[in-house]
Amino acid sequence: MKRTKRWVLGSTILAMTLGAALTGCAKTEEGASGSPAPSASGKVEDKYDKLPKAVSVTMYDRGAVAAEEGSYEQNRWTKWIQEQSGVQVKYVPVPRNQAQDKLNTLIASGEAPDLIWDFDRNYIGTLVTQGVIQPIDDYIEKYSTVLKKYINENPDLKPLMTFDGKIYGITTKRPLNNLANAGMWIRQDWLDKVGMKAPTTEEEFFAVTKAFKEKGLSGNTNAPVVSMYVWPNVISGLYATHSTQWYLEGGKMTNARFVDRNVGAISFERKLYENGYIDKEYLTDKNSQKMMTDWAQGKSGILIGTVGNGIDSYMKDLMKNVPDANPVPLAAFSTKYGKFGVYQETDANIFVAFNKDMKNPKAAIQYLDWLLDKGWYALKNGVENTHYKLVSGVPQVIDADKFKKEVAYASEYAIVKDDAKTFKPEDLIIKAAQDPLSQRWAKLNVQAITTALSVPFRRDMPYVPSLPEINNVFASIGPKLDEIRTRAIIKGDITPEQALDMMRKEYKSAGGDKTDQGAQEWYEKNKKNFK
Q1: Measuring CA to CA, which residue among 9, 16, 12, 11 is closest to residue 118?
Q2: Are 192 and 273 within one domain?
Q3: Is residue 2 part of a domain?
Q4: 204 and 327 assigned to the same domain
Q5: Among candidate residues 348, 463, 345, the one with its CA nearest the CA of residue 416
Q6: Could you tell me the residue range of the domain that residue 247 belongs to?
Q7: How far is CA 519 from each of CA 237, 245, 253, 307, 507, rounded to the nearest angstrom?
Q8: Nearby residues of 172 by Cβ (< 8 Å), 6 or more positions away
Q9: How buried is residue 98: exposed, middle or buried, by Cβ count under 10 Å (0-12/13-18/19+)?
Q10: What would the pLDDT profile of 31-76 be if each residue is shown by its tens digit?
Q11: What is the distance of C-alpha 162 from the center of its chain?
Q12: Same domain, residue pair 401 and 439
Protein backbone atom coordinates (compact mmCIF):
# COMPACT_ATOMS: atom_id res chain seq x y z
CA MET A 1 0.00 0.00 0.00
CA LYS A 2 1.22 3.40 -0.85
CA ARG A 3 1.57 6.29 1.47
CA THR A 4 -1.33 8.58 0.77
CA LYS A 5 -0.20 11.59 2.74
CA ARG A 6 0.77 12.81 -0.71
CA TRP A 7 -2.35 13.90 -2.59
CA VAL A 8 -1.03 13.66 -6.12
CA LEU A 9 0.48 10.94 -8.24
CA GLY A 10 3.95 12.49 -8.26
CA SER A 11 5.86 15.45 -9.57
CA THR A 12 5.39 16.46 -13.19
CA ILE A 13 7.34 14.26 -15.58
CA LEU A 14 9.26 16.09 -18.30
CA ALA A 15 7.58 15.85 -21.70
CA MET A 16 8.82 12.82 -23.55
CA THR A 17 8.16 11.47 -27.04
CA LEU A 18 7.23 7.90 -27.76
CA GLY A 19 10.02 7.28 -30.26
CA ALA A 20 10.03 4.28 -32.50
CA ALA A 21 8.08 1.27 -31.23
CA LEU A 22 10.37 -1.43 -29.93
CA THR A 23 8.43 -4.10 -31.74
CA GLY A 24 9.53 -2.66 -35.08
CA CYS A 25 12.56 -4.03 -36.87
CA ALA A 26 15.24 -2.23 -38.84
CA LYS A 27 14.89 -2.51 -42.62
CA THR A 28 18.07 -4.52 -42.87
CA GLU A 29 16.48 -7.12 -40.57
CA GLU A 30 13.18 -7.33 -42.43
CA GLY A 31 12.14 -9.25 -45.48
CA ALA A 32 10.15 -7.62 -48.26
CA SER A 33 6.90 -8.25 -46.36
CA GLY A 34 8.13 -6.52 -43.20
CA SER A 35 8.46 -9.85 -41.35
CA PRO A 36 11.76 -10.95 -39.79
CA ALA A 37 14.10 -12.21 -42.47
CA PRO A 38 15.06 -15.88 -42.51
CA SER A 39 18.64 -16.75 -41.63
CA ALA A 40 20.99 -18.71 -43.85
CA SER A 41 19.72 -21.88 -42.19
CA GLY A 42 16.17 -21.04 -43.11
CA LYS A 43 15.09 -20.25 -39.55
CA VAL A 44 13.39 -16.96 -38.79
CA GLU A 45 15.71 -14.80 -36.75
CA ASP A 46 14.56 -12.77 -33.78
CA LYS A 47 16.59 -9.61 -33.30
CA TYR A 48 16.25 -9.89 -29.51
CA ASP A 49 18.09 -13.20 -29.50
CA LYS A 50 21.25 -11.32 -30.46
CA LEU A 51 21.02 -9.14 -27.37
CA PRO A 52 22.12 -10.03 -23.84
CA LYS A 53 19.38 -11.54 -21.70
CA ALA A 54 19.36 -8.61 -19.34
CA VAL A 55 16.71 -6.44 -17.72
CA SER A 56 16.62 -3.74 -15.04
CA VAL A 57 13.79 -3.58 -12.51
CA THR A 58 12.43 -1.13 -9.96
CA MET A 59 12.81 -2.21 -6.34
CA TYR A 60 11.20 -0.53 -3.34
CA ASP A 61 13.79 0.27 -0.70
CA ARG A 62 12.11 -0.26 2.66
CA GLY A 63 15.35 -0.43 4.61
CA ALA A 64 14.70 -4.10 5.35
CA VAL A 65 17.95 -5.72 4.16
CA ALA A 66 20.29 -6.49 7.05
CA ALA A 67 23.87 -5.33 6.54
CA GLU A 68 25.20 -8.89 6.59
CA GLU A 69 22.70 -9.84 3.86
CA GLY A 70 24.07 -7.19 1.51
CA SER A 71 21.91 -4.60 -0.22
CA TYR A 72 18.78 -4.49 -2.34
CA GLU A 73 21.03 -4.59 -5.42
CA GLN A 74 23.11 -7.58 -4.30
CA ASN A 75 22.23 -10.29 -1.82
CA ARG A 76 21.61 -14.03 -1.63
CA TRP A 77 18.33 -13.68 -3.51
CA THR A 78 19.55 -11.50 -6.37
CA LYS A 79 22.28 -14.10 -6.97
CA TRP A 80 19.68 -16.88 -6.84
CA ILE A 81 17.45 -15.05 -9.30
CA GLN A 82 20.27 -14.70 -11.84
CA GLU A 83 21.07 -18.41 -11.55
CA GLN A 84 17.50 -19.68 -11.72
CA SER A 85 15.86 -17.31 -14.22
CA GLY A 86 18.59 -17.29 -16.86
CA VAL A 87 18.25 -13.51 -17.04
CA GLN A 88 20.74 -10.97 -15.77
CA VAL A 89 18.62 -8.71 -13.58
CA LYS A 90 19.75 -5.34 -12.30
CA TYR A 91 17.68 -3.85 -9.47
CA VAL A 92 17.18 -0.12 -9.11
CA PRO A 93 16.08 0.72 -5.55
CA VAL A 94 13.77 3.69 -4.95
CA PRO A 95 12.69 4.84 -1.47
CA ARG A 96 9.24 3.37 -0.77
CA ASN A 97 7.70 6.59 0.46
CA GLN A 98 9.11 8.71 -2.36
CA ALA A 99 8.91 6.04 -5.05
CA GLN A 100 6.94 7.94 -7.66
CA ASP A 101 8.98 11.12 -7.23
CA LYS A 102 12.22 9.16 -7.59
CA LEU A 103 10.93 7.28 -10.62
CA ASN A 104 9.84 10.54 -12.22
CA THR A 105 13.36 11.88 -11.80
CA LEU A 106 14.88 8.72 -13.32
CA ILE A 107 12.42 8.89 -16.22
CA ALA A 108 13.12 12.56 -16.92
CA SER A 109 16.88 11.88 -16.98
CA GLY A 110 16.54 8.83 -19.23
CA GLU A 111 17.79 6.49 -16.50
CA ALA A 112 14.57 4.66 -15.60
CA PRO A 113 14.75 0.85 -15.39
CA ASP A 114 13.27 -1.44 -18.05
CA LEU A 115 10.51 -2.70 -15.78
CA ILE A 116 8.73 0.05 -13.83
CA TRP A 117 6.15 -1.02 -11.29
CA ASP A 118 3.88 0.56 -8.74
CA PHE A 119 0.81 -0.30 -6.68
CA ASP A 120 -1.04 2.68 -8.11
CA ARG A 121 -2.85 2.07 -11.40
CA ASN A 122 -3.30 5.81 -11.77
CA TYR A 123 0.46 6.27 -11.80
CA ILE A 124 0.81 3.73 -14.59
CA GLY A 125 -1.92 5.65 -16.43
CA THR A 126 0.16 8.81 -16.03
CA LEU A 127 3.12 7.06 -17.64
CA VAL A 128 0.87 5.94 -20.51
CA THR A 129 -0.29 9.48 -21.19
CA GLN A 130 3.29 10.75 -20.94
CA GLY A 131 4.48 8.21 -23.50
CA VAL A 132 6.96 6.72 -21.05
CA ILE A 133 5.84 3.09 -21.32
CA GLN A 134 4.73 0.87 -24.17
CA PRO A 135 1.90 -1.61 -24.87
CA ILE A 136 2.97 -5.21 -24.35
CA ASP A 137 0.19 -7.31 -25.92
CA ASP A 138 2.40 -8.39 -28.82
CA TYR A 139 5.27 -9.40 -26.52
CA ILE A 140 2.94 -11.51 -24.40
CA GLU A 141 1.44 -13.18 -27.46
CA LYS A 142 4.78 -13.90 -29.09
CA TYR A 143 7.07 -14.72 -26.19
CA SER A 144 5.03 -15.74 -23.15
CA THR A 145 3.53 -19.02 -22.04
CA VAL A 146 2.94 -18.52 -18.30
CA LEU A 147 1.75 -14.91 -18.35
CA LYS A 148 -0.45 -15.55 -21.35
CA LYS A 149 -2.10 -18.51 -19.62
CA TYR A 150 -2.57 -16.53 -16.39
CA ILE A 151 -4.26 -13.63 -18.16
CA ASN A 152 -6.58 -16.01 -20.01
CA GLU A 153 -7.50 -17.71 -16.74
CA ASN A 154 -8.14 -14.38 -14.96
CA PRO A 155 -10.10 -12.29 -17.48
CA ASP A 156 -11.41 -10.02 -14.71
CA LEU A 157 -7.90 -8.60 -14.36
CA LYS A 158 -7.52 -7.65 -18.01
CA PRO A 159 -9.57 -4.39 -17.80
CA LEU A 160 -7.30 -3.27 -14.96
CA MET A 161 -4.22 -3.89 -17.13
CA THR A 162 -5.67 -2.12 -20.12
CA PHE A 163 -5.34 1.52 -21.17
CA ASP A 164 -6.64 2.76 -24.52
CA GLY A 165 -7.42 -0.82 -25.53
CA LYS A 166 -3.89 -2.13 -24.95
CA ILE A 167 -2.20 -3.90 -22.04
CA TYR A 168 0.33 -1.61 -20.38
CA GLY A 169 0.55 -2.94 -16.82
CA ILE A 170 0.79 -6.63 -15.97
CA THR A 171 -0.82 -7.52 -12.66
CA THR A 172 -1.65 -10.60 -10.62
CA LYS A 173 -4.26 -11.20 -7.95
CA ARG A 174 -3.78 -10.40 -4.31
CA PRO A 175 -4.39 -13.04 -1.64
CA LEU A 176 -7.06 -12.19 0.90
CA ASN A 177 -4.62 -10.96 3.53
CA ASN A 178 -3.32 -8.35 1.09
CA LEU A 179 -6.80 -7.13 0.20
CA ALA A 180 -7.25 -6.12 3.82
CA ASN A 181 -4.48 -3.60 4.01
CA ALA A 182 -5.66 -0.77 6.24
CA GLY A 183 -6.92 -1.35 9.76
CA MET A 184 -6.93 -0.22 13.38
CA TRP A 185 -5.91 -1.63 16.73
CA ILE A 186 -6.87 -0.73 20.28
CA ARG A 187 -5.51 -1.82 23.63
CA GLN A 188 -8.29 -3.80 25.29
CA ASP A 189 -6.43 -3.57 28.60
CA TRP A 190 -6.61 0.22 28.33
CA LEU A 191 -10.34 0.03 27.58
CA ASP A 192 -10.76 -2.10 30.69
CA LYS A 193 -8.87 0.46 32.79
CA VAL A 194 -11.23 3.27 31.76
CA GLY A 195 -14.31 1.04 31.86
CA MET A 196 -15.27 1.59 28.22
CA LYS A 197 -16.09 -0.53 25.18
CA ALA A 198 -14.46 -0.41 21.75
CA PRO A 199 -15.83 2.61 19.86
CA THR A 200 -18.39 2.07 17.10
CA THR A 201 -18.93 5.75 16.17
CA GLU A 202 -16.73 8.80 15.73
CA GLU A 203 -18.14 10.30 18.93
CA GLU A 204 -17.27 7.17 20.89
CA PHE A 205 -13.79 7.14 19.36
CA PHE A 206 -12.99 10.60 20.67
CA ALA A 207 -14.58 9.80 24.02
CA VAL A 208 -12.20 6.85 24.34
CA THR A 209 -9.11 8.82 23.29
CA LYS A 210 -10.06 11.56 25.75
CA ALA A 211 -10.39 9.02 28.55
CA PHE A 212 -7.04 7.38 27.68
CA LYS A 213 -5.29 10.75 27.78
CA GLU A 214 -6.94 12.06 30.94
CA LYS A 215 -6.15 8.81 32.71
CA GLY A 216 -2.50 9.21 31.73
CA LEU A 217 -2.27 5.67 30.41
CA SER A 218 0.58 6.64 28.08
CA GLY A 219 2.70 7.70 31.06
CA ASN A 220 1.41 11.22 31.63
CA THR A 221 -1.60 13.31 30.68
CA ASN A 222 0.38 15.39 28.18
CA ALA A 223 1.55 12.49 26.02
CA PRO A 224 -0.25 11.37 22.83
CA VAL A 225 -2.32 8.20 22.98
CA VAL A 226 -2.77 7.52 19.25
CA SER A 227 -0.13 6.24 16.82
CA MET A 228 -0.45 6.22 13.05
CA TYR A 229 1.47 3.83 10.82
CA VAL A 230 2.53 5.41 7.52
CA TRP A 231 -0.76 5.55 5.64
CA PRO A 232 -3.82 7.63 6.55
CA ASN A 233 -5.81 5.08 4.53
CA VAL A 234 -7.98 4.50 7.56
CA ILE A 235 -9.17 8.08 7.98
CA SER A 236 -9.83 8.65 4.29
CA GLY A 237 -11.65 5.32 4.15
CA LEU A 238 -13.85 6.11 7.14
CA TYR A 239 -15.10 9.24 5.36
CA ALA A 240 -15.07 7.87 1.78
CA THR A 241 -12.54 10.49 0.72
CA HIS A 242 -9.67 8.26 -0.34
CA SER A 243 -7.41 10.24 -2.66
CA THR A 244 -7.18 7.46 -5.27
CA GLN A 245 -10.93 7.41 -5.80
CA TRP A 246 -13.63 9.09 -7.81
CA TYR A 247 -17.11 8.87 -6.35
CA LEU A 248 -20.55 9.01 -7.94
CA GLU A 249 -22.23 11.83 -6.08
CA GLY A 250 -25.79 12.15 -7.34
CA GLY A 251 -24.77 10.34 -10.51
CA LYS A 252 -21.92 12.77 -11.19
CA MET A 253 -18.25 11.84 -11.09
CA THR A 254 -16.58 13.75 -8.25
CA ASN A 255 -12.95 13.46 -7.29
CA ALA A 256 -12.33 12.33 -3.72
CA ARG A 257 -10.53 15.53 -2.84
CA PHE A 258 -13.66 17.64 -3.31
CA VAL A 259 -16.57 15.67 -1.87
CA ASP A 260 -18.37 17.29 1.08
CA ARG A 261 -17.17 14.53 3.39
CA ASN A 262 -13.68 16.02 3.32
CA VAL A 263 -14.87 18.46 5.98
CA GLY A 264 -15.32 15.48 8.30
CA ALA A 265 -11.97 13.89 7.39
CA ILE A 266 -10.05 17.13 7.96
CA SER A 267 -11.95 17.75 11.20
CA PHE A 268 -11.00 14.28 12.43
CA GLU A 269 -7.28 14.92 11.99
CA ARG A 270 -7.63 18.41 13.43
CA LYS A 271 -9.19 16.96 16.59
CA LEU A 272 -6.37 14.43 16.92
CA TYR A 273 -3.80 17.20 16.57
CA GLU A 274 -5.25 20.06 18.61
CA ASN A 275 -6.12 17.84 21.57
CA GLY A 276 -2.68 16.25 21.66
CA TYR A 277 -4.08 12.78 20.99
CA ILE A 278 -1.43 12.20 18.30
CA ASP A 279 2.24 13.19 18.13
CA LYS A 280 2.60 16.81 17.01
CA GLU A 281 5.13 15.73 14.40
CA TYR A 282 3.00 12.95 12.96
CA LEU A 283 2.95 14.39 9.45
CA THR A 284 6.73 14.53 9.29
CA ASP A 285 7.50 11.38 11.31
CA LYS A 286 9.49 9.53 8.65
CA ASN A 287 8.10 6.03 8.19
CA SER A 288 6.18 6.64 11.45
CA GLN A 289 9.24 5.51 13.38
CA LYS A 290 8.56 7.68 16.43
CA MET A 291 4.90 6.73 16.68
CA MET A 292 5.52 3.04 16.10
CA THR A 293 8.27 3.06 18.73
CA ASP A 294 5.72 4.53 21.14
CA TRP A 295 3.33 1.72 20.25
CA ALA A 296 5.97 -0.98 20.69
CA GLN A 297 6.90 0.47 24.09
CA GLY A 298 3.29 0.49 25.23
CA LYS A 299 2.93 4.28 25.22
CA SER A 300 -0.09 4.51 22.91
CA GLY A 301 -3.48 2.85 23.10
CA ILE A 302 -4.79 3.16 19.55
CA LEU A 303 -2.97 2.31 16.31
CA ILE A 304 -4.32 3.67 13.03
CA GLY A 305 -2.81 2.16 9.91
CA THR A 306 -2.83 -1.50 8.92
CA VAL A 307 -4.05 -4.95 9.86
CA GLY A 308 -0.57 -6.36 9.81
CA ASN A 309 1.57 -5.55 6.79
CA GLY A 310 4.82 -4.12 8.09
CA ILE A 311 3.91 -4.02 11.78
CA ASP A 312 4.60 -7.58 12.88
CA SER A 313 7.86 -6.68 14.61
CA TYR A 314 6.24 -3.74 16.41
CA MET A 315 3.36 -5.93 17.59
CA LYS A 316 5.71 -8.62 18.82
CA ASP A 317 7.85 -6.01 20.56
CA LEU A 318 4.77 -4.62 22.30
CA MET A 319 3.84 -8.06 23.57
CA LYS A 320 7.41 -8.66 24.77
CA ASN A 321 7.86 -5.22 26.33
CA VAL A 322 4.44 -5.12 27.97
CA PRO A 323 3.35 -8.69 28.75
CA ASP A 324 -0.05 -7.51 29.99
CA ALA A 325 -0.79 -5.58 26.78
CA ASN A 326 -3.85 -6.88 24.97
CA PRO A 327 -4.02 -5.34 21.49
CA VAL A 328 -7.17 -6.25 19.56
CA PRO A 329 -8.42 -5.28 16.09
CA LEU A 330 -10.78 -2.31 15.95
CA ALA A 331 -13.49 -2.39 13.30
CA ALA A 332 -14.24 0.63 11.13
CA PHE A 333 -16.66 2.89 12.97
CA SER A 334 -19.40 5.08 11.56
CA THR A 335 -19.31 8.84 11.12
CA LYS A 336 -22.18 11.26 10.56
CA TYR A 337 -21.78 10.56 6.83
CA GLY A 338 -22.25 6.81 7.13
CA LYS A 339 -20.14 3.68 7.49
CA PHE A 340 -17.66 3.18 4.66
CA GLY A 341 -14.97 0.88 6.00
CA VAL A 342 -11.23 1.42 5.81
CA TYR A 343 -9.20 1.23 2.62
CA GLN A 344 -9.16 -2.16 0.94
CA GLU A 345 -7.14 -3.00 -2.13
CA THR A 346 -8.51 -4.11 -5.47
CA ASP A 347 -7.92 -7.66 -6.63
CA ALA A 348 -5.01 -6.39 -8.70
CA ASN A 349 -1.65 -6.29 -6.98
CA ILE A 350 1.17 -4.15 -8.37
CA PHE A 351 1.27 -3.09 -12.03
CA VAL A 352 4.41 -3.91 -14.01
CA ALA A 353 5.07 -1.73 -17.05
CA PHE A 354 7.66 -1.85 -19.84
CA ASN A 355 9.82 1.22 -20.39
CA LYS A 356 9.48 2.32 -24.03
CA ASP A 357 13.29 2.42 -24.26
CA MET A 358 13.72 -1.17 -23.10
CA LYS A 359 16.36 -2.97 -25.15
CA ASN A 360 15.20 -6.57 -24.77
CA PRO A 361 11.49 -7.09 -24.05
CA LYS A 362 11.86 -10.79 -24.81
CA ALA A 363 14.21 -11.14 -21.84
CA ALA A 364 11.72 -9.20 -19.70
CA ILE A 365 8.94 -11.62 -20.64
CA GLN A 366 11.21 -14.59 -19.89
CA TYR A 367 11.95 -13.13 -16.47
CA LEU A 368 8.29 -12.48 -15.64
CA ASP A 369 7.23 -15.91 -16.91
CA TRP A 370 9.82 -17.52 -14.63
CA LEU A 371 8.72 -15.43 -11.64
CA LEU A 372 5.05 -16.25 -12.11
CA ASP A 373 5.69 -19.92 -12.77
CA LYS A 374 7.91 -20.78 -9.81
CA GLY A 375 10.31 -18.03 -8.82
CA TRP A 376 7.83 -16.21 -6.58
CA TYR A 377 7.37 -19.17 -4.23
CA ALA A 378 10.94 -19.28 -2.95
CA LEU A 379 11.17 -15.49 -2.82
CA LYS A 380 8.14 -15.45 -0.58
CA ASN A 381 8.89 -18.52 1.55
CA GLY A 382 12.62 -19.18 1.41
CA VAL A 383 14.34 -22.54 1.11
CA GLU A 384 12.56 -25.69 2.22
CA ASN A 385 13.97 -27.26 5.39
CA THR A 386 16.11 -24.16 5.92
CA HIS A 387 13.49 -21.47 6.26
CA TYR A 388 10.28 -23.48 6.15
CA LYS A 389 8.81 -26.96 6.25
CA LEU A 390 5.55 -27.99 4.61
CA VAL A 391 2.67 -28.63 7.01
CA SER A 392 -0.62 -29.62 5.35
CA GLY A 393 0.74 -28.08 2.19
CA VAL A 394 1.45 -24.75 3.89
CA PRO A 395 5.07 -23.52 4.24
CA GLN A 396 5.62 -23.17 7.98
CA VAL A 397 8.42 -20.90 9.17
CA ILE A 398 11.07 -22.81 11.11
CA ASP A 399 12.77 -19.91 12.86
CA ALA A 400 11.04 -16.50 12.95
CA ASP A 401 14.23 -14.48 13.47
CA LYS A 402 16.12 -16.30 10.73
CA PHE A 403 13.18 -15.87 8.35
CA LYS A 404 12.91 -12.17 9.09
CA LYS A 405 16.59 -11.61 8.43
CA GLU A 406 17.11 -13.86 5.41
CA VAL A 407 13.77 -14.04 3.62
CA ALA A 408 11.27 -11.34 4.58
CA TYR A 409 12.79 -8.70 2.31
CA ALA A 410 12.88 -11.06 -0.69
CA SER A 411 9.14 -11.17 -1.35
CA GLU A 412 9.39 -7.68 -2.89
CA TYR A 413 11.34 -9.17 -5.81
CA ALA A 414 8.30 -11.29 -6.72
CA ILE A 415 6.55 -8.57 -8.71
CA VAL A 416 4.23 -11.16 -10.22
CA LYS A 417 3.06 -14.19 -8.25
CA ASP A 418 0.32 -16.78 -8.18
CA ASP A 419 -0.45 -16.99 -4.46
CA ALA A 420 -4.11 -15.97 -4.30
CA LYS A 421 -5.86 -19.14 -5.47
CA THR A 422 -5.46 -21.32 -2.40
CA PHE A 423 -4.76 -18.84 0.39
CA LYS A 424 -6.97 -18.89 3.48
CA PRO A 425 -6.47 -16.50 6.43
CA GLU A 426 -6.08 -19.39 8.84
CA ASP A 427 -3.05 -20.50 6.82
CA LEU A 428 -1.19 -17.67 8.53
CA ILE A 429 -1.39 -19.59 11.80
CA ILE A 430 0.09 -22.71 10.20
CA LYS A 431 2.69 -20.65 8.35
CA ALA A 432 3.93 -18.80 11.42
CA ALA A 433 6.79 -20.11 13.48
CA GLN A 434 5.65 -22.24 16.40
CA ASP A 435 7.07 -20.14 19.23
CA PRO A 436 4.33 -18.63 21.45
CA LEU A 437 4.95 -15.04 20.34
CA SER A 438 4.74 -15.82 16.63
CA GLN A 439 1.61 -17.90 17.16
CA ARG A 440 -0.05 -15.18 19.21
CA TRP A 441 0.65 -12.58 16.53
CA ALA A 442 -0.54 -14.88 13.73
CA LYS A 443 -3.89 -15.43 15.46
CA LEU A 444 -4.29 -11.69 16.01
CA ASN A 445 -3.42 -11.04 12.38
CA VAL A 446 -6.14 -13.41 11.21
CA GLN A 447 -8.63 -11.65 13.48
CA ALA A 448 -7.54 -8.29 12.09
CA ILE A 449 -8.05 -9.38 8.48
CA THR A 450 -11.55 -10.65 9.26
CA THR A 451 -12.36 -7.49 11.20
CA ALA A 452 -11.13 -5.14 8.47
CA LEU A 453 -13.05 -6.96 5.73
CA SER A 454 -16.24 -7.07 7.82
CA VAL A 455 -17.05 -3.47 6.82
CA PRO A 456 -16.88 -2.97 3.03
CA PHE A 457 -14.74 -0.14 1.72
CA ARG A 458 -16.66 2.26 -0.48
CA ARG A 459 -15.33 1.91 -4.01
CA ASP A 460 -17.81 3.16 -6.60
CA MET A 461 -15.98 1.59 -9.55
CA PRO A 462 -13.24 -1.06 -9.84
CA TYR A 463 -10.81 1.36 -11.45
CA VAL A 464 -10.86 5.10 -12.01
CA PRO A 465 -10.13 7.36 -14.98
CA SER A 466 -6.55 8.05 -15.91
CA LEU A 467 -6.78 10.82 -18.48
CA PRO A 468 -4.11 13.38 -19.46
CA GLU A 469 -6.26 16.32 -18.36
CA ILE A 470 -6.85 14.74 -14.95
CA ASN A 471 -3.21 13.84 -14.41
CA ASN A 472 -2.01 17.28 -15.52
CA VAL A 473 -4.46 19.18 -13.31
CA PHE A 474 -3.57 17.28 -10.16
CA ALA A 475 0.14 17.41 -10.92
CA SER A 476 -0.15 21.19 -11.06
CA ILE A 477 -2.33 21.80 -7.99
CA GLY A 478 -1.49 18.81 -5.81
CA PRO A 479 1.11 20.55 -3.62
CA LYS A 480 -1.26 23.48 -3.08
CA LEU A 481 -4.13 21.18 -2.06
CA ASP A 482 -1.84 19.43 0.39
CA GLU A 483 -0.68 22.75 1.79
CA ILE A 484 -4.24 23.95 2.38
CA ARG A 485 -5.26 20.73 4.06
CA THR A 486 -2.20 20.69 6.31
CA ARG A 487 -2.82 24.32 7.25
CA ALA A 488 -6.34 23.48 8.44
CA ILE A 489 -5.02 20.59 10.55
CA ILE A 490 -1.84 22.06 12.01
CA LYS A 491 -2.32 25.83 12.13
CA GLY A 492 -6.08 25.73 12.46
CA ASP A 493 -6.40 29.32 11.22
CA ILE A 494 -8.90 28.18 8.62
CA THR A 495 -11.81 25.86 9.25
CA PRO A 496 -12.21 22.52 7.46
CA GLU A 497 -15.11 24.08 5.55
CA GLN A 498 -12.91 26.97 4.43
CA ALA A 499 -10.13 24.57 3.49
CA LEU A 500 -12.44 22.54 1.25
CA ASP A 501 -13.76 25.70 -0.38
CA MET A 502 -10.19 26.88 -1.05
CA MET A 503 -9.24 23.52 -2.55
CA ARG A 504 -12.27 23.55 -4.83
CA LYS A 505 -11.36 27.03 -6.07
CA GLU A 506 -7.82 25.88 -6.84
CA TYR A 507 -9.24 22.98 -8.80
CA LYS A 508 -11.69 25.12 -10.73
CA SER A 509 -8.99 27.66 -11.61
CA ALA A 510 -6.81 24.85 -12.95
CA GLY A 511 -9.55 23.62 -15.29
CA GLY A 512 -11.54 21.43 -12.94
CA ASP A 513 -14.82 21.82 -14.79
CA LYS A 514 -13.28 20.41 -17.95
CA THR A 515 -11.63 17.65 -15.92
CA ASP A 516 -14.96 16.67 -14.37
CA GLN A 517 -16.53 16.60 -17.82
CA GLY A 518 -13.79 14.28 -19.07
CA ALA A 519 -14.24 12.01 -16.06
CA GLN A 520 -18.01 11.88 -16.63
CA GLU A 521 -17.57 10.99 -20.30
CA TRP A 522 -15.06 8.31 -19.30
CA TYR A 523 -17.54 6.85 -16.82
CA GLU A 524 -20.40 6.73 -19.32
CA LYS A 525 -18.10 5.03 -21.82
CA ASN A 526 -16.66 2.45 -19.42
CA LYS A 527 -19.45 1.70 -16.94
CA LYS A 528 -20.57 -1.30 -18.98
CA ASN A 529 -17.28 -2.95 -17.99
CA PHE A 530 -17.88 -2.45 -14.26
CA LYS A 531 -19.31 -5.26 -12.20
Answers
A1: 9
A2: yes
A3: no
A4: yes
A5: 348
A6: 181-343+434-453
A7: 21, 12, 6, 33, 14
A8: 150, 154, 157, 348, 349, 372, 416, 417, 418, 420
A9: middle
A10: 333 345 554 555 678 999 999 999 999 999 988 999 999 999 999 9
A11: 19
A12: no
